[in-house]
Each structure stands twice: as C-alpha cells, then as structure tokens.
Design brief:
heterotrimer, A alpha+beta, B alpha/beta, C alpha+beta, A: alpha+beta, Heat Shock Protein 90, 6 helices, 26% strand, C: alpha+beta, Glutaredoxin, four-stranded mixed beta sheet
C-alpha cells in the first residue's frame, strides 16, 4: 500500500463485511508525544477472543475466494516496521475497535495520504452506512459526520453527484486548514 | 458502427410542428455542424411525447434532460452549454423535471408522467417513426413473427379475447369477439380496415399514434389479417392529417421493402398488404358503414344493419374494422400475453386509454392512463389543474357523441361502464375540461351545431330532428326561450336516439341530454330569467353602470354608437337596455371600472 | 423478410445504436475493493468513474464495491452490469481506461472487449 489512507480504506472494508452501520475513523497527529494514531471503530457483529488472536495472521481469513487475509497483517507490519504497533478490541455481537499507532517523525512511517479520497470512496460504495471522521492535528480538529448531512438533505442519497461534490470540497478545505501543508 | 455520445430527440408531432419544431431541428443540425459535432451527436425526429402545452419538446439522452418551449433561438445555447460543456440549460428545463437538489429527475418521477402508463404510446417520443429499424429494435414485428410461426389464427383470437381488449373508438365492443365474427364469416376474400378518421373536435390520440409509431398499427393489422383470413388491409385516414399520411406512406413502403408486408411474410406463405384511403372532411365517415361506403368510392352514408360488416362489409365481403388505438395495443398483447394486459385496468375495462386533454387545463396534451384512474387524478395530478385557479365545472368526454361529467363525479374511476351509467361515454378519448366561466347551454349548442353540419341527411330523424333541436337551443341562447322548450328538447332527443339510422344521429342528442341532467338550472336561468349565469351568452348579458363607481365623466356616452347612455355631468349615468346593442365599447372606455357585464 | 432470424439480426444491430435512449436503470459498476484491489490502485479507478459519470450527467447508474473476486493478479477489476445484458469484467484497470468504457459501454451499450480478460489474452497471443 502506498500510504495510510489506502490501508484505512482496506481496514474499513472489514467493518463493512461485519455488517457495521456506523463506522468511526479517528486520526490523531500528536506532535507532543510523537505519535500518529489511527482508530477504526465499528458497530458490526464483532469477534470473540479466539478470532481476535488469529486476525493478525496473514493466512487467516473469513472469505472463501482466497486463503489469505492481508488487510490487518499488512497494516500491523507497516506499524511495526517503524516501531509502532496495532491492537484490536472486540466484543462479539457489539463491535470492534482497531487501534494502530506510528511514531510520527520516523523516517519509515508511511505518509498519511489523501483521506478525502478514501472517505468519498467509502460513502459512494456504501451510501447507507454512517461514517464519522475525526482528524486532529496540533493546528486544530476537523469533524465530519454523515448523520448530520443526512439531517440536512433527508430524502437524498449521499451518493448523488452534487452531494458528493459538496462533501469532497468540505473535506479538502477542512483538512487543509488543520494540516501543515505536507 | 458509429458511436454517438448523445442523441437529441425533437418532437415532430403536429402540435410541436405548429410551434416551430421543424425549424428547431434544422437549427440543431446547423449548429452541430458549426461546432463539428455531427459525428458525436445525433438529432432525431420523433413522435408526440404528450406535453403539447409546452412544446416544442427536446429530450437529450443519455441524461434524459427534458427541455420544453424550445425556440430556434434557444438552440445555439443548448448546443454550446449542454452538448459541448455538459452544463444543463436550467431555464429551458421543464420546471417539474428538476428536483430540489438540482438533479435531473427520471421521467417516472415527473408529476405529468407519474400516474401515466404508456402502453400504446410507448414508442412515441422515443423512436424515429420514419425508420423501421428503430421500431424493430424495440421489439417491433416480433409479435407478427410469433403469431405467424407459433400460433394458429384461432389461438390469436383466443389471446385477444382473453386480454379483455375493448374497442377504443368509443363503443367499447369486445375486440376478440369482433375478430371471431370476422373469422367465422364464410368467404375467401376478406378485408381488414382501420378507422383513422378521428372526427371528434379536440381529439388527437389516433393522430399522435399514427405520427409517432405508425408501424404498431401496420403490424397489428397484419396480425388481424392472419387471424381472420384476410390478405388486404385499408387504413381510412382523414386528409386533414398530412403528417400522419406521410409517415404511414413511408412506413408501408419500408415494411414492404423488408418483406414485412406483401407476399410470403417470414416465409410462412401468409400474404398481407395495406393501402391508404384518404377521407375528405366528413365526420360521418367515421361511422363504420359510411366509412366502408367511402372506401368503395361512394358517398359516405351509413346503411341499416344487419347485415353487419363482419359478414358483409367493404365490396360486400366480410370486413373487420377497428380503431387505431385498439390496433396499437395488439402487438404488445401478443408478446406479453393476455394476462399482462388483463392485469391493468378494472374488471370490465382492461388496459389503458389515451386521452387528449384540452380546454381549461394547465397541461394540455396527450396522456395515457390505466382504466380505473379517477377523473380527479387526471385533471389535478396529471393535468396540473385548472389555470387561474378557477373552479372545475365539468369534463366533456366523447366529443359530439358524449356527455359531461360534473364535479360531483370527480372521484369516479374512468371506465366504459361507469361512464355510461352517469350518462356520458368513453368515446374516442377527447376530454375537454370546462370551468366556471363556460356556459353549459352554449357547450351543448356547440356540439349540436357540429353534428347538424355533419349529418349526411339520409334519415329524417337526424336530418330534421337535430336541426329542430339546434333551433330551440339557439332561441334559448338568444333569450327567446319558452317554458315548453326544455320538455321539447327532451322529447326530440329521445325520439332521435331511438330512430336514427347510425351512431351519429343516435348520439347527437347526448350533449344536450347530459347537460340537462346535471345543469338543468342553467337552462332554466336562460329560459325563465333570461340570464346566463356563466356570463357567456352575449344576448343575455346586460351592460350596466355601477352607480357607486361612476363619476359622470361622459366618456362612455360619447363612444356609444347608438346613444344608449345618458345622464348629467358628474352624476352617475345609465344605459338604456332597449337601445343597447351590447358592443362593449363603453366598458372598454371606462377608466373607473364602473361598467359591468352580467 | 424470409425468417425470424433476419428480424432478430436487424433488431440486435439497431438496438446497439439506440442503447443511448434506453432506460439505464439497473446499470451497476462494481469495483473490486479488497486488499489486492486497493493495493493495485482501485481507488483512483473508482474516482475516475464517478468523475466521468458526473461529467456526462448520467443518472440511474450505481457505483458500488465488491470484495476479492479471486484473480488478484488482474486487479484492479471492474464488473459492469447493464440491464438485460451479461456482466462484463474489466481487468488491469487504470483511470485512463475509464473514459472509453463509460462512452462506449455504459452510454452506447458496446463492451470494450480489449479491456476484458478475453481481450487481454488476445493481446498476448
């Protein structure tokens, strides 16, 4: 994967496969503690303790088309390659939280990438799922919640081209403001 | 294969044609050439899309953008903004076709089309009627192929009977049974005829089908020929429909070229060909025996029945005669099966009906609805209501043979039997909407005037009877009505209905009977009070000066041609009703709105 | 016309050129979004489809995702379902192939065979 935004797009696919209707993605750029933290939290069907342990194994997967499930292992490997780590908490029937952190300034840390593209892709392909995106940097905090948008335009699918356009500019403007530029 | 990125469909039905659509098409072709877009964008002439009120109509695919009221001056903007830059020209889009989120709605969501079910009109506005390939692309002639290769004539008749299709020309006779009669008639030369005379004033359903989808009628007639054992068809079409005549001529020629008409169709040994016969302006030639007489080259006059046309028709041979819209349903019934057709509509009236909405209604044009749709839905939801927010008074169906439906029956489902119950009839589909500003006596007179003019004169009840009725009506409208006039009208009407030779005479009294039934009070006002409640009949109107508003400026008295206005300066004036000739000049001159007409 | 076959041929041929006017409801573009797809570049392909459809104001087209189809080496893959037609699977997709697929296949109903698995093999022969 080229960057973290693609990893995140990948991990969220797991939440969707677990039938989640609400998925929260939080990105925190913590300069003070030199950490880049990414959290993906969903209210899908969750996993029991046994399964949680197996998830980081690249040869474990729930799908039938292939014998490998690389999403989580790849992310975990990317984190560990620069000194970070990944952990998963899950409750069967309730949901799952995946937390991964990277040392912010490490030279091998993958760049964050284009989060706006990832959010747009998720919304288009899953217009009935609610996404909550929180991104905080030393320069500020940006919040995005599809539930609020649905309240504004109640009878329109979020996948409509004009709505998507609006979401895209809202995301890129908001993210620009809080980013340092890079 | 040419790959266009867009098709621009422009309606070339008579309605839009008269509003300038031919020039719109020409301008499109010029502009596309100017911008070097001819190889990317195709301009297509098509048939009536129904919203005649706001033509010319232009639809751009693949978006389905629906432009209305397009003039040739608007075309350069559509080409440069929409076709070149991909930006919809919002000011020209039919107002109801964009949702609040500025997204082009699909046609099923537009109020005008939501409640419609376009079965006979399915190709109108979608294909180019002058290209047989387009008709074939949308399942054209497959029904004929199926009938000829997979079904026997009796099976075809069974299917038509099971579908429950009834004649759309107005009488509603079960079509399958008619075909059965013609099939069973002895004889080796039989004819299939199509009644495209459409004489009702205000009716243009058949015209639109013939202009927009002529092949559907040709295919159906060939299927009918197979079913009854005929090899020759005639389409009797009124000469006042030149565009329809042209489209039919082209269609017949193209069908012949492809071997879909002529000898040995589909290699099955079945022969069938069709000729056109043009009418010459006689309403009576829409009546079946008069029509056949006209095809034979004689004067259009009806004859007594029996023998019925199914046994002895054109040239004395067994003849099947059906209306254009009836035929237009046949190919789909064969392809989709009779159960499909029977699932639409009500228990005794299956399928859909095309109505030509006219009169006091916002969305004048062509609509097709499933039988059983209520009048209220047609007028207020599809039709967009009455302009100016005026009150609905009645809807006249069936033209000069029909009657009116008053407001108390607005929630009545439209089907053959419920209409006859209340004294009206389905008719061919013309629906004229009448509001509070129309006079029902005047409307009855209008239709009776028409039938008197069109009477062929062969039988006394119609020739003499209707004329006497008209004279009574005209006297009433002139303010010279007598108390016994209304009873006389009713007696005359009943006698004419019972004794006239053909449908024209038998139904001519209907508008009078129907308006008498529901609006008797208007007649009484005309006869007893010498007043026209709707304010229409000139002879019964009085111009009077409202004393409170009159300033005595003398302008009106100066302009009165007969010196009927008098008074003192600065005092309210008065009009002498005996001298007044009701020219209205005084009312036009008055600057204080002090003169009213009632 | 000598046979129903002839009629069918005219019908098929003309329908291709009229596909533009038909109701496209039920058209689906399905982009493979499993790990293999995302890693191979599915996201830019998805966004390119959105862009092209928006440019042409085409409605009634649903863009959605699917998981791993199984042939990961051919990712990014896109399946196109047109109403009444068999699904077409495009392989080795890149954003610059998208415009042609939308113009030729989605709008005009003609699959771009050289971008499909069969087309790829022909190229390699």
């Amino acid at each position: 994967m080229e960057d973290l935004s693609l990893h995140i797009l990948d991990i969220v696919q797991n939440s969707i496969a677990a039938m989640a209707k609400e998925i929260r993605i939080a990105v925190k750029e913590d300069e003070l503690n030199d950490k880049l933290i990414v959290i993906v939290e969903d209210n899908g069907k969750g996993m029991d303790e046994e399964t949680v342990k197996k998830v980081v194994d690249p040869f474990y997967t729930t799908r039938a088309t292939r014998k490998v499930g690389l999403g989580v292992p790849l992310l975990s490997a990317a984190a560990e390659a620069c000194g970070g780590s990944l952990r998963i908490n899950s409750k069967f029937g309730k949901g799952t939280i995946l937390e991964v952190w990277f040392p912010l300034s490490h030279i091998d840390r993958p760049p964050l990438g284009n989060m706006a593209d990832t959010i747009i892709s998720l919304i288009v392909c899953n217009p009935d799922v609610d996404f909550i995106y929180e991104h905080s940097t030393p320069r500020g905090k940006f919040d995005f919640d599809t539930r609020l948008i649905r309240k504004e335009v109640p009878h329109v699918s979020l996948g409509e081209p004009d709505i998507l356009d609006w979401i895209r500019s809202y995301l890129s403007e908001g993210l620009n403001e809080i980013s340092g530029g890079a | 294969m040419e790959l266009y990125r867009s098709h621009v469909l422009v309606c070339e039905g008579t309605g839009c044609h008269c509003s300038g659509s031919a020039e719109v098409i020409e301008t499109f072709k010029e502009e596309l050439k100017k911008n070097q877009l001819e190889n990317e964008i195709k301009v297509v002439s098509t048939g009536c899309f129904g919203l005649c009120e706001i033509g010319p109509i232009v639809i751009v695919y693949p978006e389905g953008a629906f432009y209305s009221g397009v003039k040739k001056e608007d075309v350069p903007e559509i080409v440069s903004e929409h076709l070149l830059k991909g930006r919809l020209v919002k000011r020209l889009l039919y107002h109801d076709s964009i949702s609040s989120a500025d997204v082009v709605k699909s046609l099923d969501e537009v109020e005008f089309y939501k409640k419609q079910k376009r079965v006979t009109l399915r190709n109108c506005g979608v294909i180019n009627p002058e290209k047989i390939e387009e008709y074939i692309a949308f399942d054209g002639y497959r029904a004929l192929g199926k009938a000829l290769t997979e079904m026997t004539p009796l099976e075809v008749i069974e299917v038509v009977k099971k579908s429950g299709l009834r004649g759309r020309g107005g009488a509603g006779f079960p079509t399958g049974r008619k075909w059965e009669f013609a099939h069973n008639a002895p004889g080796d030369k039989k004819y299939v005829c199509c009644n495209a005379d459409e004489g009702d004033p205000g009716a243009f359903m058949d015209r639109s089908i013939l202009e927009g989808d002529p092949h559907s009628v040709l295919e159906a007639m060939a299927i009918a020929g197979y079913a009854i054992g005929a090899d020759q068809g005639y389409i009797y079409i009124r000469a006042e429909y030149p565009i329809a005549v042209k489209r039919l001529t082209i269609a017949i020629q193209q069908a012949r070229e492809l071997g879909l008409l002529g000898k040995n169709i589909f290699g099955t040994g079945f022969n069938f060909d069709i000729e056109l016969r043009l009418g010459a302006g006689a309403f009576v030639c829409g009546e079946e025996t008069a029509l056949m007489s006209s095809i034979e080259g004689k004067r259009g006059e009806p004859r007594p029945r029996p023998p019925f046309p199914a046994l002895k028709g054109v040239f004395g041979k067994p003849t099947l005669l059906n209306n254009v819209e009836t035929y237009a349903n046949i190919p789909q019934i064969i392809l989709n099966g009779p159960e499909w057709f029977a699932s639409i509509g009500t228990e005794k009236s299956k399928g859909t009906k095309v109505f030509a909405l006219g009169g006091k209604i916002n969305n004048t044009g062509l609509v097709e609805i499933a039988m059983g749709t209520t009048l209220r839905e047609i007028i207020y939801e599809i039709g967009g209501g009455i302009p100016g927010g005026k009150k609905f008074k009645a809807a006249q169906t069936g033209g000069p043979s029909g009657g009116c439906i008053p407001a108390e029956h607005l929630d009545m489902p439209i089907d053959y039997d419920s209409l006859t119950e209340i004294g009206s009839m389905m008719g061919s589909g013309g629906m004229i909407v009448i509001d509070e500003d129309n006079c029902m006596v005047d409307i009855a007179r209008f239709f009776l005037d028409f039938t008197v003019d069109e009477s062929c004169g062969k039988c006394p009840p119609c020739r003499i009877g209707t004329k006497r009725m008209l004279e009574i009506l005209e006297r009433i409208i002139q303010g010279k009505g007598k108390e016994e006039d209304i009873d006389n009208l009713e007696t005359l009407a009943k006698n004419i209905k019972a004794s006239a030779l053909c449908g024209l005479g038998q139904t001519a009294p209907n508008p009078v009977l129907s308006t008498l039934r529901y609006f008797r009070d208007e007649y009484l006002a005309h006869v007893r009070d010498k007043k026209c409640p709707a304010g229409v009949c000139q002879a019964l109107l009085q111009y009077t000066i409202v004393k409170e508003l009159c300033t005595g400026c003398t302008l009106c008295s100066k302009v009165c041609p007969v010196g009927a206005i008098s008074g003192e300066r600065k005092q309210p004036f008065t009009i002498d009703q005996d001298k007044c000739i009701k020219c209205g000049a005084c009312m036009e001159k008055c600057r204080f709105k002090a003169i009213e007409k009632r | 016309m000598k046979s129903l076959q002839e009629l069918e041929e005219i019908r098929k041929k003309t329908l291709e050129s009229l596909y533009l006017r038909k109701d496209r409801a039920g058209t689906r573009i399905v982009v493979g979004m499993a790990t293999c797809g995302i890693a191979a570049g599915a996201r830019p392909v998805l966004l390119a489809f959105l862009e092209e459809i928006k440019k042409r104001n085409i409605k009634d087209v649903t863009v959605t995702q699917t998981g791993c189809i199984g042939v990961c080496r051919l990712e990014p893959m896109v399946e196109v379902y047109l109403p009444g037609q068999e699904k077409v699977t495009y392989v080795n997709m890149t954003p610059d192939k998208v415009a042609r697929i939308v113009a030729q296949h989605i709008v005009n109903g003609q699959p771009v065979t050289e971008y499909t698995i069969g087309g790829q093999q022909k190229k390699n022969d």
